[in-house]
Write a structure and sequence with these properties.
The structure holds two protein chains of two kinds. Chain A is mainly α. Chain A is built from twelve helices and three strands, in the order E-E-H-E-H-H-H-H-H-H-H-H-H-H-H. Among the domains of chain A are: about 35 residues, no CATH class; about 150 residues, no CATH class. Chain A has a two-stranded parallel ribbon with strand order 2-3. The longest helix of chain B is centred in the middle third of the chain and has 24 residues. The chains are: A mainly alpha, B alpha/beta.
């Protein structure tokens, strides 16, 4: 409930009534905007009564009908699935015919072909399984993230505890988080607000991964900018940018515990691009200006160099979106990495080795005079 | 007793099959408004109809908020042998005389047709119609449902044990005196039976007037006989019986037992069968505040009574088979009524108390697969909210016109002047309401909920009808019928 003043939480005051016709009571209809003035008028009497708006605050805003997806039959999916099934049948017949022919020619050829087909089948099953496992894992990450958002929004302490357990279980195969898991286990009995618990969990489990992801993005951005700057053809630029983006996405997913296969990567890429579309405009305002100014400067030096900087910036932005969709929690206590954190060195180009991550900056700031 | 005949269930199943077939092109939703006496069933039904047929002001009901609800109107009801719910009279009484409806004495029924546009989420677009059937009935009859599975001997023992409780000593005196003087095995004598039944009825009436009477003791028709007054099925009383002993033919006990069974067969069972067994949705109105006023004892009684009533209901998820032949109630909403007696900052505590109160019932209904909700509502909001500043103290209170004769502390109300009322703080921990005052429970007198008169009609634009204010009626409706208006 909002607007609780400390007096209201005072335990058990007795029931009380104030008649409006009591001369001690001053009324204030609350219609007038100058609430301060009317309160003063009321204060001359012993009791002043202010009317509140006739509104119950928990009513949810009516949903926008335009936002509701219309349920439609998935004819496209049905078409694709049935065509794929037909192709598979065709391929099956082809292989079967081939093996038959080989048997007719020489039995040992036939046996070899049969073994190959078997091997291929096993490999196919393994690939499908891996894809499935990757997709399920991704689902799980998504579920954890949305659950964290819900727990935060509803301030649900029990939900936070359950979520902490789920996150620990999710990280159990990652030896690097052993100490963090230990810390959370010690807190499991403590009574904590939902947000406090999630902040602790975030720090204990994800701090290391956050650093690694940030490093990965900075590295990829730098590499893209360098390669674009030296590559002779625009086509090669494009190919390399796409290749780097995919690699970066998979790497970040791996850092946060996902193991996306082909389809998983596609899905992730789609949500990362969606995320970019949503956040891009907002972020543009705060950090893009320096980039544009910088680009102007770089472009004056060399067109190629300028393109490199822009491509690097693009990769960095994509990397940030990838972090947002791969992380099993939203950023709660830890600051979300900003554009400057991962692409700051695209322009200044100082120290080719160490990327300009916040911790390196903090180190610099923390021990000032080393020389 | 006759063995259970298979004919009745078969007829029932066939009737439902017919209904299901009809529902496929002309959907009818039966809404059960369940509540003990004085829990506000009539007001709820009136307000529900009012808000649906005078459009608007139901933002949380999705169909209405999206502007898809085109119109609603009252249409002739399906059962010709049940009186029509006097909606217009109730509304006039509320708005013009500013009085609450008198307690309901007989069953009545209402049918409401809603024309709406299907939402974007549904398979087909275009206009559609949903028909709602709502039944209003005296809350006193409700507890009779618990009798269906009870034998005369068990019921007698229960009633007599309760009557012998020390706090009922004054009320139950004459009844117990006659009971002790009576020999159950003596030959039946119509005169004495009538007299004894009269004493029993007087005892029940006195119980109902008592301070802690939240739930009435069945049989409810003794208090609200409807058109059965004086019939033999209503002329019986509990007797002290030896467990397991056979009752001689022609004895007083045998006759009483026969009448008890007749009451069950001719009164309770038809009422249950026709109006309760096949509800699609159910809203259980609980007057939490009056029970709080009555103390821990009243709350315990309320909990017990509600639990018994809900045991008789059939709630759960429908499979296609049950949907066709024996539909179950798929959604049950528990609503704490009279939320307008509290400032909205206390509504959450009120809901917590409600949830705590009906915990057992919620668990059972949910386990059966039905959806359960709990909400604090006021079908007709009689107050508005105010901030009262008295010296340094700030109190958030409600203001309205308390009924004549209500009092809080030294303040007595005359039924005409408005007043701001702070009823006391509800406990944060709902478990405290069941504890005695010495065990951290609510101290007597720390909560007081005076009754308010219905609100004065605000001066609206000329020629436009005023709309009654409410609290969360739209959310309750969304839960009950929202999924059918998609």
């Amino acid at each position: 409930m909002s607007g609780r003043s400390p007096e209201e939480t005072k335990p058990s005051r007795g029931p009380k009534a104030w008649r409006f016709d009591d001369p001690q009571v001053g009324l204030d209809d609350g219609d007038a905007d100058d609430a301060g003035g009317s309160v003063d008028r009321g204060r001359r009497r012993a009791v002043s009564i202010t009317r509140e708006p006739d509104r119950i605050d928990d009513d949810p805003p009516p949903p926008d009908p335009a936002l509701q997806p219309r349920r439609r039959a998935a004819w496209g999916a049905i078409l694709m699935a049935s065509l794929a099934a037909l192709v598979m049948l065709g391929v099956g017949i082809g292989i079967e015919g081939l093996i038959r022919e080989l048997f007719a020619r020489a039995p040992w050829l036939g046996w070899m072909a049969a073994a190959m087909a078997l091997l291929a089948g096993i490999a196919l099953v393994a690939i499908v399984l891996r894809e499935l496992v990757g997709l399920l894992r991704e689902r799980r990450i998504e579920h954890l993230r949305s659950e964290a958002a819900r727990v935060l929004a509803e301030d649900d302490a029990e939900g936070a505890q359950a979520l902490a357990g789920a996150l620990v279980a999710f990280h159990v195969t990652r030896p690097g988080t052993a100490r963090g898991r230990e810390e959370i286990a010690q807190l499991s009995e403590a009574i904590l607000e939902a947000q406090d618990r999630l902040v602790i969990v975030e720090r204990a489990l994800l701090a290391e991964a956050d650093r690694a992801a940030r490093r990965a993005v900075a590295q990829a951005a730098r590499r893209v900018s360098v390669v674009t700057a030296v590559s002779p053809r625009a086509l090669i630029d494009i190919a390399f940018v796409i290749y780097a983006a995919i690699r970066l996405l998979r790497r970040i997913a791996g850092i946060y515990g996902g193991r996306p296969g082909f389809f998983g990567s596609l899905r992730l890429a789609r949500s990362a691009i969606d995320h970019l579309a949503v956040t891009g405009g907002v972020a543009m305002g705060d950090d893009m200006i320096q980039q544009v100014v910088g680009h102007g400067l770089a472009a004056r030096l060399s067109t190629k160099l300028g393109e490199g900087v822009v491509n690097g910036a693009m990769t960095a932005r994509f990397g940030l979106a990838a972090i947002a969709v791969c992380r099993p929690m939203p950023f709660i206590g830890a600051p979300a990495p900003r554009f400057g954190d991962v692409a700051g060195d695209l322009l200044s180009r100082r120290g080719a080795g160490e990327p300009d991550t916040p911790d390196s900056r903090a180190r610099d700031g923390g021990n000032p005079p080393r020389d | 007793m006759l063995p259970a005949s298979p004919i009745r269930p078969t007829i029932d199943a066939l009737r439902h099959f017919g209904r299901a077939a009809r529902n496929s092109y002309d959907p009818v939703l039966r809404i059960g408004v369940t509540g003990l006496a004085r829990s506000g069933k009539t007001v709820f039904t009136t307000a529900l109809v009012h808000h649906l047929i005078t459009q608007g002001d139901l933002p949380a009901l999705q169909a209405s908020g999206e502007g898809r609800l085109r119109r609603a109107r009252l249409v002739p009801q399906p059962d010709d042998d049940v009186p029509r719910f006097a909606y217009e009279e109730h509304l006039a009484r509320l708005v013009e005389a500013r009085q609450w409806p008198e307690s309901t004495t007989r069953i009545s029924q209402l049918r409401l047709a809603l024309d709406y546009e299907r939402g974007r989420g549904s398979w087909f677009g275009g206009p559609a119609r949903l028909t709602l059937d709502i039944v209003d009935y005296p809350g006193e009859w409700l507890l009779d449902l618990a009798l269906i599975d009870e034998e005369f001997a068990d019921w007698s023992r229960e009633v007599i044990t309760a009557a012998r409780a020390p706090q009922r000593h004054d009320i139950a005196g004459p009844f117990l005196a006659q009971l002790d003087a009576l020999d159950p095995l003596a030959p039946a004598d119509e005169q004495r039976i009538a007299q004894f039944a009269q004493t029993f009825k007087a005892y029940l009436t006195a119980l109902r007037q008592g301070p802690e009477a939240i739930a009435t003791t069945p049989p409810g028709r003794f208090l609200m006989p409807g058109d059965l007054a004086g019939s033999p099925a209503l002329t019986f009383a509990p007797l002290v019986l030896v467990p397991g002993a056979a009752l001689p033919r022609g004895s007083l006990a045998a006759l009483m037992q026969r009448r008890y069974e007749a009451y069950k067969r001719h009164v309770v069972t038809p009422f249950f069968r026709d109006h309760f067994r096949h509800l699609d949705r159910q809203i259980v109105l609980v007057d939490v505040l009056s029970a709080l006023d009555g103390g821990a004892q009243a709350l315990a009684e309320l909990e017990h009574a509600l639990d018994r009533v809900l045991l008789a209901m059939r709630a759960g998820r429908n499979s296609w088979l049950t949907r066709l032949f024996a539909p179950r109630t798929e959604r049950v909403l528990f609503a704490a009524t009279k939320a307008d007696h509290l400032h909205q900052s206390q509504h959450r505590a009120m809901e917590a108390i409600l949830r705590h109160l009906v915990e057992r019932a919620i668990g059972r209904v949910r386990a059966a697969g039905a959806q359960v909700g709990a909400v604090a509502i006021a079908a007709l909001r009689a107050t508005h909210e105010t901030t009262v500043r008295e010296g340094a103290e700030v109190v958030r209170a409600v203001a309205g016109t308390p009924e004549a004769g209500e009092r809080i502390g030294e303040t007595v109300f005359d039924g005409a002047t408005e007043a701001a009322v702070f009823p006391g703080d509800l406990p944060e921990d709902p478990a405290r309401v069941f504890a005695g005052a010495s065990h951290g429970g609510i101290a007597p007198g720390s909560l007081r909920f005076p009754r308010f008169r219905p609100p004065a009609t605000p001066a609206h634009l000329p020629g436009r009808k005023a709309r009654l204010p409410h609290i969360r009626l739209d959310r309750a409706l969304e839960f009950l019928i929202g999924d059918h208006l998609r």
